[in-house]
Amino acid sequence: METRALSVNTREAKKKEAAKLRRIGKVPAVVYHKGEETVSISVEEKALEKLVHSSESHLIDLQYPDGKSMLSFIKDIQFDPVSDRVIHADFQLFSAEEVVEMEVPVHIEGECPGVKLGGGKIQITAHTLTVKGKPQDIPEHVSVDISNLGLGHTLHIGDLDLGSLAGKIQIIGETDAPVVSIIAPRKEVETTTEEAAPGA
User: Fold this and answer.
1) Are residues 110 and 80 in the same domain?
2) CB neighbours (10 Å) of residue 8?
3) Which domain holds residue 185?
4) For the chain, what is the mean pLDDT?
5) At 2, is the pLDDT very low, low, confident or very high (cuts 50, 70, 90)?
6) How confident is the model over 141-151, as pLDDT tens digits?
7) Domain count for the chain
8) Residue pLDDT, tens place only, 157-180
9) Is residue 195 part of a domain?
């Protein structure tokens, strides 16, 4: 997984401090690690948004003004319900051999026969998945191959092929939880329903 640098500054965790920071284009955030004291920081909103809205997950190298640098990942993001701006972030530190849980995006790959030949539509149920493993083993995204899916078919968490990462990482969630489905065209669904009606 690629590492991205992010400049940060420590801040005072005062009640009105967060609002002041947001007014000048900064986002209040915290940095934590199990067994250590939580540290309050601030980051540039524009720089953070580039990471948050990326199609890939990254490790974040938090860089302080005094030259100190710490590896982390984004554990949680809070958005303003009206403007959708990032208003708070949680960064989790980790050690080299530590097993962590990270949320990574789903990438749909392959040409689906249920879409090309059957006119179906792709319905993505899970746009992100929670992956457990050592940070260096966690991928930037989870690839989901739909090249064998026909109309009405669904890929579940338990169906996903992790390739060379099998045994190194684990996808958290019920094995029968859907990830992506191929939905039949509306006309076909309506016709099937009408044909079934007389015998219902």
Assistant:
1) no
2) 26
3) 101-190
4) 88
5) confident
6) 999 999 998 88
7) 2
8) 999 988 888 889 999 999 999 999
9) no
What pTM, to 2 d.p., does this model score?
Answer: 0.79
Check which CATH number belongs to the domain holding 52 and give it: 2.40.240.10
132 shares a domain with 88 = no
pLDDT of residue 64: 95
- The H-or-E segment that residue 9 falls in is strand 3-10
Residue 58 three-state SS: coil
Phi and psi at 13, nearest 5°, equal -85, 65
**CATH code assigned at 123:** 2.170.120.20
Residue 107 inside a domain? The answer is yes
* DSSP states along 89-142: EEEEE--TT--EEEEEEEEEES--HHHHTT--EEEES-SEEEEEE-TTTS-SSE
